[in-house]
Amino acid sequence: MLDGKKVLFSGMQATGNLTLGNYLGALKNWVSLSDEYECFYSVVDMHSITVRQDPAVLRKRARTLYTLYVAAGLDPEKNCIYYQSHVSGHAELAWILNCFTYMGELNRMTQFKDKAAKHADNINAGLFTYPVLMAADILLYQTDVVPVGIDQMQHLEITRDIAERMNNIYGDIFTIPEAYIGKAGAKIMSLQDPSKKMSKSDENPNASIYLMDDADTVMRKFKRAVTDSEGQILYRDEQPGVRNLLDIYCAVRGISPDEAVKEFAGCGYGVLKEAVGEAVNAILQPLQKRMAELEADKSYLDGAIRANAEKARYYANKTLRKVQKKVGFPERPR
Ligand code: ATP
Ligand code: LTN
Questions:
Q1: Atom of ligand 2 nearest to the CA of 44
Q2: Where are the domains of the chain?
Q3: Which of 70, 105, 195, 250 places its Cα 20 to 30 Å from the Cα of 328?
Q4: How far is Cα 93 from Cα 153, in angstroms, rounded to an integer?
Q5: Which of 50, 145, 152 has most ligand 2 atoms within 8 Å of CB, for mutation?
Q6: Measuring from atom 9 of ligand 2, which residue has the nearest CA?
Q7: pLDDT digit string (tens) for 135-175?
Q8: Which residue puts its alpha carbon closest to atom 3 of ligand 2?
Q9: Which numbered atom of ligand 1 lies nearest the CA of 115?
Q10: Which fold has domain 6-180+298-327?
């Protein structure tokens, strides 16, 4: 609890261009939760270097991601929006948590297995201990809830296990966090292969809608989306492509699959694709306009970055000092 409110923490990596999946599965929920909770939203740039990055590109993408958080509706005066690398407590707590995490636990992580297969030439220790840094992010702020997509559930579980383990040894040092999975948009699938999630690192640009895609590109990608030969618009497992289009439509419009199926009764796939494209453009166009405005006002964001890094450091250090003391580090001379 912070100022009578529960604490919320979430973060995204500044790798690749953000997709509609990132927006509907994560960012959109963040905005809707931001009044109810005391929120920390991080651009997790330290996680990004677990795969090789071009430094200039990473710096630029991190700034774009920060801007996007704000453009999507997160007010940097009400929410603590900051770069992970600006708060050294993340790395310091991660080291301690590393010493309370088992190799066997990390070996089970599916994201590690996927990323190791994808980057076989660079399976570094950071990639392996990625979930420990993520646990540090969350536990550092005594977080109650963590809004993420379903793909991050396993990382949330290991975070809870590490926290419980340390609480059992040292008494209550960490709040045990809960995942918050939004109802709609929890898993948006690739437009070209509806058995895979839409991902910003997908090599096929037609598989993903990027938040910065212009209106024509969005429409073209939806028109090319893979469906099936059934010819009926129903929400069911046998029609994953159509179901994904309905999921997107429902998440954007805030309606249920039943309502959407009724709305498209008797329509062909062309009508559905066009309606989804229009609904998505109706949210992306204002978002892009706001991005451009924010990018033009450099000093506003620079001020927010500085103030929020300080705020994050303050809360991070509170937890960190407590943990350092518990594990037996000597008191710091004043
Ligand atoms: P990468 O391709 O680089 O692994 P990603 O697109 O999977 O990236 P992440 O940075 O791993 O994105 O995720 C950021 C947030 O977006 C997380 O909370 C994640 O759960 C959510 N998310 C990512 N992809 C989707 C998706 N297809 N549907 C719903 N939520 C998603
Ligand atoms: N691993 C997450 C990003 C992430 C995160 C976090 C999410 C890093 N630290 C803390 C929530 C809370 C991802 O790949 N989406």
A1: 8
A2: 6-180+298-327, 215-293
A3: 105
A4: 21
A5: 152
A6: 134
A7: 999 999 999 999 988 889 999 999 999 999 999 999 999 99
A8: 12
A9: 4
A10: Rossmann fold (3.40.50)
Cα(268) to ligand 1 centroid in Å equals: 30
Q: Considering the domain 215-293, what is its CATH architecture?
A: Orthogonal Bundle (1.10)
152 Cβ inside 6 Å of ligand 2: yes
- Alpha carbon distance 332, 329 (integer Å): 9
- Rounded CA separation 300/302 (Å): 6
Is 115 designated active site?
yes
Is 5 designated active site? no
pTM, to two decimals:
0.93
Using an 8 Å Cβ cutoff, are 48 and 83 in contact? no
Alpha helices in the chain (DSSP H): 20-22, 28-33, 45-48, 55-71, 89-98, 103-107, 110-118, 125-128, 130-139, 153-170, 215-223, 240-253, 257-263, 269-296, 298-327
Output the residue whose Cα is nearest ligand 2's atom 5. 11
Question: What distance in Å separates the CA atoms of residue 40 and residue 33, rounded to the nearest whole number?
Answer: 11
Rounded Cα distance, 156 and 178, in Å: 8
Place of tokens 């509170």: 318
The bound ligand whose nearest atom lies closest to the alpha carbon of 40 is: 2
Edge-to-edge strand ranges of the sheet holding 7-12: 80-83, 38-43, 7-12, 145-147, 178-180
3-class SS at 5?
strand
pLDDT tens digits, one per residue of 116-125: 998 899 999 9
Q: What is the pLDDT of residues 232-241, one digit of tens each?
A: 999 999 999 9
